[in-house]
């Protein structure tokens, strides 16, 4: 039986590798078409990407991306497409920042309070889409896209002086009141820049994700719904409740996405708080096959690509090229997974057939000889 | 295969019948070997190639669009042949008359019964110029009277020089309609038989190398203790047109410990809804369901299953399995909250795997191991896994919907034995089946369901499949007595 497992792992790795190789080939063609030499570009990206300050940058970026990937993956495992991770994390980070700036408590109280606030806000925002889906049959895709827009508008309205916003001393930037020193998350004192301590929380979230899905009854029910809603219902899962619950969890996870930036870097929510990470999360969850380790690798790759492009810009390349690589990777991944999945299923069916036929022949021979 | 004959292909499930048919219809490619049509070697890359060579397939599950008319369904995809208007209508009438199909081109498919839909499927294939027809288990969904009518159609087709390949599990039917019989086992032809001389018993032995199992239950184990009582069940559903219709109405019955209650009925008369109502997947409008003295009318599905309801679902792919999950995960499905699958809120993967191994062993599930996906098993082995799983939790009530559908003769006997065995130990069984022999053979009590109501009851000891069949079409109600003379039935024909 071990043999089957090994093949499954091989097949599992084949898809992302295939996709990344294909993506680089396509990108090389695009680069060549713009009149640039493609391989030196890859060389520049790689050389720059492995420098020690780049490593820190990539790990810090990946922490954020990893949480985004997990948030999206929870939905995917349920067959729910939570496009609203983007709005959920921004709204969550905004309210958490506003609350954190207004309070001055000891760090061991304030930091958890900020994190929990973010998770609750994210969960509530995602929960709206879940409730709409089970009560009114509204597609979660449409609902979450709309909620993203509404989130943007709400933040825009509240982030103004006199409301929850605060004009800085130079009078140029509006942000939430900066968090007090005590509310800052610890750093790993690495050189030249520190690695964000929130990395620990991201790792814990990954472990919790893996354990819940593969080792608990709840996780089994969740995966069952994702694989076959009808079978789940017949097996006794309350599918509607499961939809709402998993949207809440996905939203709570989304609430964490803004935390590394807020608690380890910006300490406030302003107009230049990172946006669009929810969509990056979709790509990363796809890339990582919804697997906690896969998502981590996807997040690191994403960070690496972004770091590499910064450098490309200085070397006279168009920075848009990374957008092309990223887009092509996602496209290739989706195609490669489907191809490999179908191939794997067919291959297994054939192997089972062959094995059974062999068993049958053996027993026939035995009967004959006996 | 000779032209102008009905050639039957029989074999156990997983013997390779479906694979062979898929190859003939161009849906799958052979590794070796050749196919010749009319003496010429042929290679099929897709169903289109097969259609070009005059091969047509009537699938077990109909491929018709309900809201289109017969005409529209027939021309769909082959608009180029005779257009979509009067010429096509004319052609359909011609074919229908030539083979005695009695198809009316302008009726909505939605309004047709199962037998009529099947004739539309046959016509669809003929319309595309097929000279060789493949029928995959065409009688599975028909009542005996309809089967006879279908066989008349087949004889008509044969008389016109068409060739029919007929796949069936029901050996009696094979003998009555086929001119030649080929038996396959484990992917190879093991013999052919002449239907004029061979008996069903000999045929079955060819297929499995064992005796034909009989569903007959020997001694009655019915007790006086009610296990499941369903009283005044009414269930309404909104159909696609927005009209609220009662799909179950006034359904009442009691199953005692050790009793098998068989529900006969043409599919789509409320049997699926009844199963879902007892399982708790539907909210009842009125009525109560009582299991072993406890009112479970409002209890959620999971609690009902924990309370001892085992289910062998009608559609195992939709309701009984996670096709892309390994066998051991499928063993957990439906019983995630019970031992040995979990301890508290956590799964016990080790115990679940070990118990899957046991089920595979005890229920003779043919598989190379428990890590393969459920989709890689043949239908019969999937079913054995499901039966094994449900029986492993000592159910008080087993809901068995078509428990042996698409299951080979060997597995069928096993499943019947297991139901009998459990019944002896006080299991109550709600049996729903389209196989009337199975119903009559296994049940202690028989009820007939028609348009959501239980319209007739019968004693399985004396009833015949034909009598049951006429009640299933709504022609007879009340208590079905064995008629003293068969005069009324003759008139009906």
Automatic annotation (TrEMBL), chain A:
Pfam families: BPD_transp_2 (PF02653). It comes from the Bacteria. This is ABC transporter permease. InterPro entries: ABC_transp_permease. It is found in: Cell membrane. Keywords: Cell membrane, Membrane, Transmembrane, Transmembrane helix. CDD domains: TM_PBP1_transp_TpRbsC_like. It comes from Streptomyces lichenis. The chain crosses the membrane at residues 56-76, 88-105, 111-132, 141-159, 195-213, 243-263, 321-340. It is a multi-pass membrane protein.
């Amino acid at each position: 039986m071990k043999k089957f497992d090994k093949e499954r792992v091989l097949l599992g790795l084949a898809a992302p590798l295939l996709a990344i190789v294909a993506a680089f080939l396509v990108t090389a063609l695009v680069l060549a078409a713009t009149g640039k030499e493609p391989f030196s570009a890859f060389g520049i990206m790689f050389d720059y990407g492995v420098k020690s300050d780049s490593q820190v940058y990539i790990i810090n970026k990946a922490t954020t991306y990893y949480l985004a990937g997990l948030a999206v993956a929870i939905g995917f495992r349920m067959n729910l497409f939570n496009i609203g991770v983007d709005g959920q994390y921004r709204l969550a980070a905004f309210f958490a920042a506003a609350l954190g700036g207004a309070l001055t408590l000891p760090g061991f109280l304030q930091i958890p309070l900020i994190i929990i606030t973010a998770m609750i806000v994210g969960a509530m925002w995602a929960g709206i889409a879940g409730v709409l889906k089970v009560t009114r049959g509204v597609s979660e895709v449409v609902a979450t896209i709309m909620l993203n827009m509404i989130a943007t508008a709400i933040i825009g309205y509240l982030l103004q002086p006199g409301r929850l916003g605060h004009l800085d001393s130079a009078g140029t930037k509006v942000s939430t009141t900066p968090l007090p020193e005590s509310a800052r998350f610890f750093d790993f004192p690495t050189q030249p820049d520190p690695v964000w301590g929130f990395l620990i929380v991201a790792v814990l979230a990954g472990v919790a994700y893996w354990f819940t899905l593969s080792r608990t009854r709840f996780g089994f029910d969740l995966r069952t719904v994702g694989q076959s809603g009808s079978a789940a219902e017949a097996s006794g899962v309350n599918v509607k409740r499961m939809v709402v619950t998993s949207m809440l969890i996905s939203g709570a996870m989304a609430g964490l996405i803004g935390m590394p930036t807020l608690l380890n870097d910006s300490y406030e929510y302003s107009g230049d708080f990172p946006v669009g990470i929810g969509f990056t999360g979709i790509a990363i969850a796809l890339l990582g096959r919804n697997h906690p380790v896969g998502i981590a690798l996807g997040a690191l790759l994403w960070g690496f690509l972004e770091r590499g492009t910064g450098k490309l810009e200085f070397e006279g390349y168009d920075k848009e090229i990374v957008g092309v690589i990223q887009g092509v990777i996602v496209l290739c991944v989706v195609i490669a997974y489907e191809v490999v999945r179908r191939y794997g299923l067919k291959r297994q069916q054939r192997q089972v057939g062959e094995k059974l036929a062999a068993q049958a022949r053996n027993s026939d021979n035995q009967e004959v000889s006996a | 295969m000779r032209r102008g004959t009905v050639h039957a292909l029989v074999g156990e499930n997983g013997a390779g019948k479906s694979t062979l048919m898929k190859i003939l219809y161009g849906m799958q490619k052979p590794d070796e070997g050749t196919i010749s049509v009319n003496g010429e070697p042929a290679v099929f890359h897709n169903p289109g190639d097969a259609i070009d060579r005059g091969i047509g397939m009537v699938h077990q599950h109909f491929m018709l669009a309900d809201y289109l008319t017969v005409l529209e369904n027939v021309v769909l995809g082959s608009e180029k042949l005779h257009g979509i208007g009067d010429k096509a209508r004319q052609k359909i009438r011609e074919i229908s008359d030539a083979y005695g199909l009695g198809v009316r081109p302008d009726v909505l498919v939605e309004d047709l019964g199962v037998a009529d839909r099947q004739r539309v499927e046959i016509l669809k294939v003929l319309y595309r110029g097929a000279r060789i027809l493949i029928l995959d288990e065409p009688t599975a969904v028909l009542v005996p009277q309809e089967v006879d009518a279908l066989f008349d159609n087949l004889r008509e087709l044969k008389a016109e020089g068409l060739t029919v390949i007929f796949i069936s599990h029901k050996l009696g039917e094979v003998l009555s309609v086929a001119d030649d019989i080929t038996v396959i086992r484990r992917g190879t032809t093991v013999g052919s038989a002449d239907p004029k001389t061979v008996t069903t018993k000999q045929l079955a032995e060819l297929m499995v190398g064992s005796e034909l199992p009989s569903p007959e239950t020997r001694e009655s184990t019915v007790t006086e203790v009610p296990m499941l009582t369903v009283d005044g069940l009414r269930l309404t559903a909104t159909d696609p047109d927005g009209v609220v219709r009662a799909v179950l109405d006034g359904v009442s019955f009691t199953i005692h410990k050790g009793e098998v209650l068989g529900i006969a009925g043409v599919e789509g008369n409320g049997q699926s809804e009844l199963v879902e109502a007892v399982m708790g997947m539907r909210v009842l409008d009125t009525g109560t369901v009582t299991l072993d003295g406890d009112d479970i009318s409002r209890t959620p599905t999971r609690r009902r299953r924990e309370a001892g309801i085992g289910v062998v679902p009608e559609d195992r792919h939709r309701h009984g399995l996670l096709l892309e999950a390994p066998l051991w995960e499928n063993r957990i499905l439906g019983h995630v909250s019970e031992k040995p699958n979990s301890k508290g809120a956590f799964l016990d993967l080790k115990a679940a795997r070990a118990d899957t191994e046991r089920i595979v062993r005890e229920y003779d599930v043919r598989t190379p191991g428990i890590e393969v996906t459920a989709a890689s098993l043949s239908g019969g082995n999937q079913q054995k896994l499901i039966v094994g799983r449900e029986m492993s939790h000592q159910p008080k009530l087993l809901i068995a919907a078509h428990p042996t559908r698409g299951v080979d003769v060997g597995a069928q006997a096993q499943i019947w034995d297991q139901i009998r065995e459990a019944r002896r130990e006080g299991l109550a069984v709600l049996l729903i089946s389209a196989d009337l022999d199975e119903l009559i053979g296994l049940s202690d009590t028989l009820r007939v369901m028609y348009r959501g109501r239980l319209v007739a009851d019968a004693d399985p000891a004396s009833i015949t499949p034909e009598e049951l069949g006429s009640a299933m079409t709504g022609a007879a109600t009340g208590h079905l007595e064995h008629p003293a003379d068969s005069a009324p039935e003759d008139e009906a024909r």
